[in-house]
Amino acid sequence: MDANLPAMAASQAPFPWLSLIVLLPAIGALLMPLLPEVEESNALNLPRNIAIAFLLADFLLMLTIFGRLFDTQAVGLQLVERVSWIPFIGLEWSLGVDGLSGPLVLLSGLITLLSAAASWNLESKTRLYFALLLVQASAQALVFLSQDFLLFFLSWELELVPVYLLIAIWGGKRRLYAATKFILYTALASLLILISGLALALSGNDFTLNLSELTNRSPSGSFGLLCYLGFLIGFGVKLPIFPLHTWLPDAHGEANAPVSMLLAGILLKMGGYALLRFNVQMLPDAHLQMAPALIVIGIVNIIYGALNAFAQDNVKRRIACSSVSHMGFVLLGIGAIDALGISGAMLQMISHGLIAAAMFFVTGSFYERTKTLSIPNMGGLAKVLPTTFAFFLTSSLASLALPGMSGFVSEITVFLGITSQEGFTPVFRAITIILAAIGLVLTPIYLLSMCRRVFFGPRIPALAMVEEMNPRELTIGLSLLLPTLIIGFWPRVAIDFYEASTNGLAEKLISHTLVTLNQATPLS
Fold first, then answer.
1. What is the DSSP pairing of strand 91-97 with strand 78-86?
2. Among 16-25, 156-165, 203-212, whose mean pLDDT is lowest?
3. Kind and range of the H or E element at 86?
4. Which residues, listed in sequence order, are joined to residue 78 by a DSSP beta bridge?
């Protein structure tokens, strides 16, 4: 097995397990029109209960498959399924999983399940709402598992529709503006993804949409660089990278808390995953040229997102800007072009998915009680909501990378990846570390100041009698925060899942670096 070609070493699945992961939520969505509409929140809310049952079954299926059938030591694709679907356009139902996609599939399964549970009190259009959540679950899994470019693109587009509708129908006062801005940004970016992908598919002697075959082409020169830039902008909108990020605060500010959990916990990770899968794995030569630019963009994300967070007086918008900052570390890790940096990028995506989902969930919990997200209109909540305060503070400490939590491990790994990369000059590495450290210093300031203003300070009389978190909400909060503590104290539980794949990807980059050096300085 050639470690430099991780996508080629594939194991066939004896049973279509991955298809079952993708299709199970979709089956639940098809059942929703057959159910009676419920216009009140109660224990007999069939659409909600059935959605949670299907998502729970899907998540348990994921745990079983990845726990028993997935080999963490294998570099290439596993459980591969290939069925010719629409032959005349070359579309295949082609699925596979490796260390890059497996952890994110589990993350999406967990957060979607908890998002449905967080929607317990939804009272209007319940059948449509939970059907959209189930469709979103299928589309998310298909994005991470697709091994055919056209299938990947269709699933990438499919997951935009439920998010648009979830914001446009159940969002806040400016929901139509936020939803329209989201769909315009992402749809226009998708054009670049489609053009770049089809250009790669047509670049060889034979037309192919199979991602493994496209990976082996590894085009270089101006053509490879153009494809890289197309993918970078297309996927960068979803990540998001500056200045393509402006849809995110609006979407978070208007979406309800469960949808914000999906946006921050899963959708942003699709951008990071796609950069690793397409830009790094398929276009290594172009990535070696663009790696310094990625690091610069990552630094801008970190500092700009942190500074922008200070200007937000809405809790959700402040957390949204913090997500822009934290995803900058993903760009740093990807740009580090070594195993440690890429490992840090993967761990940062997993960590931020859990932490951001926890923060948005707790925010939604006290919004249901206070009916406000305005920081100046809140105060003294720590005395009436001590448990809520404990959860929000814990998630904030995780977000600011407190040692002992997953955020610390992921960000320190990215830092080590940058410092250990000998391909960059010492001055470039030093400037990168200093500027990224400024972002780390700013993060606790804007997060802890938000905690102080919301939970301490002058008490608002109208908020003196609000109720504390109930057992259901405590369970959801613990389900998100416990993994951050486990990864923080025992990071190998996550790293072992993807390390073989990230090492294989780094080896491929190193081999291309050596080839480039040999071509630049031929032996005399």
1. antiparallel
2. 203-212
3. strand 78-86
4. 97
* 121: its two tokens: 């009190």
The string over 437-470, giving b where at least 16 C-beta atoms fall within 10 Å of a residue's C-beta and e elsewhere, is eebbebbeebbeebbebbbeeeebeebeebeebe
15: left (phi over 0), alpha (psi -120 to 50) or beta: beta
Q: How far is CA 23 from CA 113, 136, 371, 485, in A?
A: 15, 11, 37, 32
* 370-to-334, 366, 440, 457 alpha-carbon distances in Å: 41, 6, 31, 16
Structure tokens at 323: 């997500």
Average pLDDT, the chain: 89
Are 378 and 370 within 8 A, CB to CB?
yes
Question: Is the pLDDT reported for residue 162 higher than 70?
Answer: yes
Which of 2-16, 125-139, 183-197, 441-455 is predicted least confidently?
2-16
Nearest to 301 by CA among 337, 271, 331: 331
- Residue among 349, 368, 328, 150 at smallest CA distance from 245: 328
Q: How far apart are CA 327 and CA 240, in angstroms?
A: 7
| Residue 421 confidence (pLDDT) | 74
Q: Distances in Å between the alpha carbon of 369 and those of 73, 381, 455, 462?
A: 48, 11, 14, 11
Instruction: Please report, rounded to a whole number, the percentage of residues in the chain having pLDDT higher than 70.
Output: 93
The answer to whether the beta carbons of residues 344 and 333 sit under 8 Å apart is yes
What's residue 151's pLDDT? 96
SS3 148: strand
Q: Is the whole-model pTM more than 0.90? A: yes
What's the pLDDT at 6? 40
**Which DSSP state fits 95?**
E
Residue located via tokens 């032959």? 87
Residues 400-418 have pLDDT tens digits of: 999 999 999 999 999 899 8
From residue 172, give the alpha-carbon distance in Å to each of 116, 311, 380, 428, 522.
19, 20, 25, 44, 63
Token digits of residue 428: 């470039």
